[in-house]
Fold:
Amino acid sequence: MAVTMNDVARAAGVSLKTVSNVINNYEFIRPATKQRVLDAIDELGYETNLTARSLRSGKTSMLGLVLADLSIPYYAELASDIMKAALSRGYRVLVEQSGNEAEHEKAVLQGQFRSLTDGLLFIPLAIDAEQIIAAAGRKPLVLLGEFVQDPRLDMVLIQNKEAAAAVTAHLLAGGRRRIAVLGAHDGDTTGSNGLRLEGYKAALAAAGMAYDPALVIPCDWRRDGGADATARLLDSGVEFDAVFGLNDALALGAMHELLLRGRKVPEEIAVAGFDDLDESRFASPSLTTVAPGRAEIAERAVELLIQRIESKDAVPTVQRPEAAFELRVRQSAP
Amino acid sequence: MAVTMNDVARAAGVSLKTVSNVINNYEFIRPATKQRVLDAIDELGYETNLTARSLRSGKTSMLGLVLADLSIPYYAELASDIMKAALSRGYRVLVEQSGNEAEHEKAVLQGQFRSLTDGLLFIPLAIDAEQIIAAAGRKPLVLLGEFVQDPRLDMVLIQNKEAAAAVTAHLLAGGRRRIAVLGAHDGDTTGSNGLRLEGYKAALAAAGMAYDPALVIPCDWRRDGGADATARLLDSGVEFDAVFGLNDALALGAMHELLLRGRKVPEEIAVAGFDDLDESRFASPSLTTVAPGRAEIAERAVELLIQRIESKDAVPTVQRPEAAFELRVRQSAP
DNA sequence: GGCCACATCTGCAACGATGTACCCAGCCCG
DNA sequence: CGGGCTGGGTACATCGTTGCAGATGTGGCC
Structure:
């Protein structure tokens, strides 16, 4: 059905291999020959069969990206950045939604999905380092985010702690004294939740303020999680003059609930988030947040993964680029 | 390096083909043999090489999805739904971002991208039906949305006109008399913009109201486009008591600008959108909008495309499922 | 003139799976 | 008892490319 190299070869009066050489820019081909081949390709409308090439070369030129769900804006924006970074380096991205389920995450690490990709970018949420190492195959793997940390794994970190501290410090500088934190448990110390909570505590300590566990409310990292948590907080009667959502979705949910209940933002209660989603800029009031350097994270992760794929040495050195963050002060917490 | 069927065959003491038969659930295999093969697979950790299978079978079991950019929430949410619909039918989705550029859209229709997929779901934005037909290859293609319409192409429509009319009627029922429309040119009659504008006009006519072109403001379908358009509208001095953003992003941008300028929503000016993004529910005030039945669109599009892929008859019948819409009345336009 | 070096091009085998054809044993049936 | 059928399995070619190992031709140089 489709046009193959053989057809092109016949049309151009050369061998199949010469067509292959032309396509792969082999150096020693007479210009005239090359032109004949190119003309034939044009005329017949030949397209390389990437499947065949993959089989032969053992490379698919695709990166796998495993995340919870594209309908979550942070992941969608990150995916977009990653796809662009990959494309500029000659790779495509195959996205897989794990739905935040441990079984699914494990399956993806070993399953057939791997055979379609040369390497994996993985945002683990439900499984830990041991499980990842146990389940992962031999192909390159780079972790994103920071729910998991292990010296045996490549990963690209973001400055969770520092950035969270910066947000907290900003709220304190604005005169807030009782800052509620949404999206963590009191005891958390690892993962994005734990590290951001640590940053919060560090900023409090630096300001000589006491840490009150009653202000730390666990919940799903989604808008409705933030709204629910805020409702619970308001109902509980605990006093607070600011809310720090450990991600923007939480903060936006919180703000929605606060306004719904007639609390003034930021006059009565300031709100701040973490991620700098596009929508945060257009919220009303616009959301103060911290940009974790998403584009840079995407670039670095893609670069690191491709390096692993293309480098001959199989020795997995640990490398942890730290992407820069930037505080975005807006109306919700001036 | 990797374990192949050959290795499994040797380990199980059967022929390579028998392993293949076991994997493909060929009926006539003695249970004992089957078990031996399965044990060998388990022991060696064999995984089918999907690339090889694709080459041999001529099917990749992947659907291509071409959209402007995943960072746009509507596309991200649609992509998520499409991936789920495809996965439940045994297909994966390979996403390609066109960036809304005509050249890129054309390239994707013919380029190597096609050889990686069995069929394409395409949301055309920058090119028209003629260009699509000229550029498209022989593989199945299903269009989404409604920027393009042509009887020679398969597509899944949404009820742009009817849904837009419903939104407009709702605003009118709320007593609004001067409804600005963001995201269309006065003369538009085709594409999502044109059709939604037509719906708007139809609702006005049904209510016996005059249509005023001065209320129709063209702009990019993004939050900042909506904000800019609203700023221009306010500056122009044209009177209006409601804003209908032709998508939610526009409406949210508009609402942001209105509130920024101290206009009360919905008391002074009501705001309504189109899409029912997740974030619209949590905007403050929450956004009145219309849900176009995204999940159903995704299901239908995937179903139609897979039907085209798997059906033997190559005759391209025109089929246009109409997904149902639902008005979501919220605070911004009660 | 002979030989080497190099540019240019070719043929064959392979990547790892599946389709097709075929083989063999057992069994039923006339 | 022979022929046909059917269950259970195998061998080989093949999908469209690329790597490897030549084969050919041309010019330069001693």
Summary: Residues 2, 4-6, 16-17, 20-21, 23-24, 48-57 of chain B lie near DNA strand C (CB under 10 Å from a C1'). Chain B has three domains: 5-48, 60-158+294-324, 160-291.
